[in-house]
Design goal:
Blueprint lengths: L1 E3 L6 E3 L6 E3 L5 E3 L13 H25 L20 E7 L12 H14 L8 E5 L9 H11 L8 E7 L2 E5 L9 E5 L4 H4 L2 E2 H9 L7 E7 L11 E3 L5 E3 L14 E6 L9 E2 L9 E2 H12 L5 H17 L17 E4 L12
Parallel strand pairs: 5-6, 5-7, 7-11, 11-14
Antiparallel strand pairs: 1-2, 3-4, 8-9, 9-10, 12-13, 12-17, 14-17, 15-16
Length: about 350
Amino acid sequence: MSMTCQKCQQQLPLPAQSKLFRCHCGNLIPLGNSDSSLPVQEHGRFSSKMRRFRDKIRRNSSRTNSLSRSPSTSPRLSLIFTKPPPSGKRALLCGVSYKKEKFRLRGTLHDVNSMRNLLVQKFSFSEESILILAEEAAYKPPTRRNILEAFKWLMTDLKSGDSLVFYFSGHGLRQPDFIEDELDGFDETICPLDFRTKGMILDNAINDILVKPLTPGVTLHAIIDSCHSGTILDLPWVYNREKRWDDNRPPSRTNKGTSGGRAIGFSACRDNQLAADTSAFSPEKTMMGAMTYTFIKALKENANITYQELLDYMHNEIEKVDKARCPLLKVFQRKIDQEPVLSSSEKFDTNTKFKL
């Protein structure tokens, strides 16, 4: 008697006593009433690594999908901030220091306080309109859950004329893009305090939660002081130093715009660059984000500064500090190799006065 292997279609002799028979091609054939074959078993170091890699991709994909849901429809989010968002102007400021980690940042709390003072003193934000997440007793910690909840607070009850600000000072990373949503093949992320256990927040999610819901008459300014942050909002247009707008729309042609409002982003650096947490700008050697310092300094020194002038000022200040480094110590002093980036949900005249 013989049987046929369903994988390689070869005729095989039927063994006398056995419940399973393995063909030379590796297929396991059950003997008895069933004439269907079992799948080839995975084995060896390579197969195990591939399974782990596959499972990791699936977990990341699941996590990305959960992050990308609108905060108003996600069943896992319940508003934990009792302070209702005011109409008009409101801001969310996040400073992540990662105090218990080796990759601790020392300038983020200084950055958050500086940004709060700028909003209150120059742009007439009230203290009640500013929500701060930081690793200090007075604030809620900037965990992934709290940041997502704060996004929900920022985007509640939008009305025409509202001016929103999202500021983030902390680490940023990038990871491969598996859905053809990025021109460079990488998703950019921000890292909450607990990102190693709870996960990062991807640019896709930030776009879904903070950009797409913007209705007519509502403007969001995002100021992101982190590494790899150039297109962290996934906005369709990125401004370059040649004074023109580059098309950043995804190859998938997914809509990354707003619902009639406007989103404008200032980022610390291009997607492939690192942002500096440095004391190079301070005679007292106070640690601060290079982007945050130059951004605030420009606005304080120039009452009627335009978007173009603000971007140029930041570039020039960073270049000036790099040129001023001591020639004998350049081996030990890391160059601040970052180029601030302006992006937008729509093209606009960058000679317009900057306002919040």
